[in-house]
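Late entry, manganese (II) ion complex.
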Amino acid sequence: MWLRVLGSAAGGGSPQWNCACPVCAAIRAGTRPGRPRTQSSVAVSADYRRWFLINASPDVRTQIEAFPGLHPHVDRTTPLEAVLLTDAELDHTLGLLLLREAQALRLYATPAVHKTLCDGSGILRTLERYCPVEWRAVVPGAEVPLADGLSCRAFDVPTTKRARFGPGVDHGRVVGYRLINERGGGTLVYLPGVQALTPALRAEIEGCDCLLIDGTCWRDDELVRLGLAGKTSREMGHLPIDGPDGSLAQLPSLGVARTIFVHMNNTNPILLEDAPERRILEDSGMEVAMDGLEVKV
Ligand code: MLT
Ligand code: MN
Ligand code: ZN
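Prediction complete; structure with ligand written out below:
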């Protein structure tokens, strides 16, 4: 199975249009090594021919253009089979509206996410005016065949982060996906938003061939220190990388062959290739995703 990172930054991208924090400023000016990144999304495929998008970012149009594997073949048929959602955040769902030219769209989302997209942000109600949407309910724990031996199983990711809109339902508001290649035997876990590595989540991750995990903030108080927000990373639903209970300290015991951080916020120093934080992470054998990165398991 193949996974292609379409966008590796959190909401806002890197650099973010209205931000002159040290990381954004350095990337914008090119004064330190670091690439611009688009917003959080990946594509997965069993055969490199039919692709499933996990999340649809506001950058989806440029992301598709940047990846020949997703270009249309003939007339208006494209290799895009369906879109799977991990949550209803705008950085993961605004792109649905940009896919409205599709003849039809198949959408995998939990009932909680579906309800938020209908009655909360309204994105789905609007999209349905443009193209037929076939919603397939995602049930955490149930294995869903996608195509050619590729299947996925969602798992619930508990969070105390309050929903900005939509129902206050907890169950299924955020999920991660375990992707299984029945033919090749490989497994891959995609978890772009996680607040805490609970025992149940650790069990989902354990022993997978490749984990792509929430790398929003390096420090828990990253945005507070910069004077950019009043909330910690954890309060925003994102486990920080650093610190005694951070992901860097917890992940090595899970026996994952390859760990790659995704969904980096524009303030995260690991976006700069010469940052000491980046060195610490790479010395632990972990990686920082960039747009266009491909993983084969
Ligand atoms: C998040 O991941 O916390 C949100 O996507 C932030 C946002 O809405 O930009
Ligand atoms: Mn996000
Ligand atoms: Zn910034």
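The chain is about 20% helix and 25% strand. Will revisit in the morning.
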